[in-house]
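User: Hey, my collaborator sent me this sequence without any context and asked if I could get a structure. I don't really work with proteins. Can you help?
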Amino acid sequence: MSTLQKTVTQKNLTPQQVVAELNKYIVGQDDAKRSVSIALRNRWRRMNADEDIRDEILPNNILLIGPTGVGKTEIARRLAKLAEAPFIKVEASKFTEVGYVGRDVESMIRDLTDISINMVKTEMRDRVEEEAREIVEERILDILIPPVKKNQSDNSSPGFDANSNDQNFNPQSASDQELNERTRKKFRDKLRNGELDEREIEIEVKKSGRSPMMQVFGPQGGMEEMGINLQDMLGNLGGQKKTKRKVTIEEAREILLEEEAEKLIDHESAVQEGLERVQKQGIIFIDEIDKVAESSNNSKGGGGGGPDVSRQGVQRDMLPIVEGSNVSTKHGMVKTDHMLFIGSGAFHVSKPSDLIPELQGRFPIRVELNSLTEQDFFDILTQPKNALTKQYQAMLKSEGVDIEFTENALREVASIAAQVNDRVENIGARRLHTILSSLLDELLFAVPDDINSGDITIDKDYVNKQLDDLVKDKDLSQYIL
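Assistant: No problem. I've predicted the 3D structure and written it out in structure-token form, which is a compact way to encode the shape of the chain:
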């Protein structure tokens, strides 16, 4: 518990700090940001509460309701990144109930557990990287300048003879040793300065061929993707096969660093810490949860078709996991009691009340996200750290071309996005991707052949010239924008 509590304490962001961080990437949706920030802080509060009641405090799961492209997924993803917590996004519509062929809902817990353990192993590799680099340096030096063997002359005779040529050997051996050390020191300096990076050497590496994986049938007959590794089952019979490869020293350093770091980390404690982290900090974002809700309109007809049975079944299978249960994984049992579940859906056809009552009760916090306005589109193009305009500027900067967008140009793009969303289909901020792609298509094709340097300004006239025909032609905008 101590290792985990250190991690949680280091990321004890207050709700207002979380919102401030989310504001750097997500425009608007203040209610949703507020709810997730409180949920994140409540985890820290639980971990620091009295031990007598700590296990009784359960997370308040959140249901985000809103049309596509308004930031539901981005909020959850950024939240997990802020908390440095194991995070997985799943789509409810991809699951089938137990008994049908396909992925069962427990697979999301198994996948999240793998993610958590890999996170811990990555952190452990970072901690041992310096030590691994020193070992790798010595291994490369051993290939370039093999060390002098102290007893190399003794190999010729089966025993030790004090009266042989011992008087001649010792000084020679000492001088060889000294010369070898001086040469290694020079090469070590060159190695650290990168002077030998392009030189080729031959190294022994583990064969990269993956061991065959095996699927297992669960007790109900459903296919469980447990991913059992046959090599683990057979206990590495015959040892790890190695092969020789000729690579540059720069490549060898990376290959050997991975190998040595892998040897230095404690895999058993990584698994234990990963299991503890996934149980206490795991965040599961269940997208398209509205797709497994049976619409009240459909139920009036009385025709319970196959898909409806499957939807109800997925909800029933999801219920114990969201409520809190034990799930079997290849690393051991995982408890889901303190995981945070964030459900998400547009709920155009169905309503949250169409979910089975027990599952509704497990998402007590409901937040409705607003549709994006023209002003929101303009803010999305200008404010976030990863705004689309900044991404295109960075890409073209790599070719030596600087592009600037005038305010009027961006307002025109925002206006077009709002118009097309109203007229065709409201896909939220994703509309900006298609519009900017069409707007800059000609420019992106011309660089670097026709334009290889210089400053380019994108103004309102350029926007109208590139997009006017598309916007006016309703048929074209339906398919292109």
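In plain terms: The radius of gyration is 30 Å. You can pass these tokens on to your collaborator as they are.
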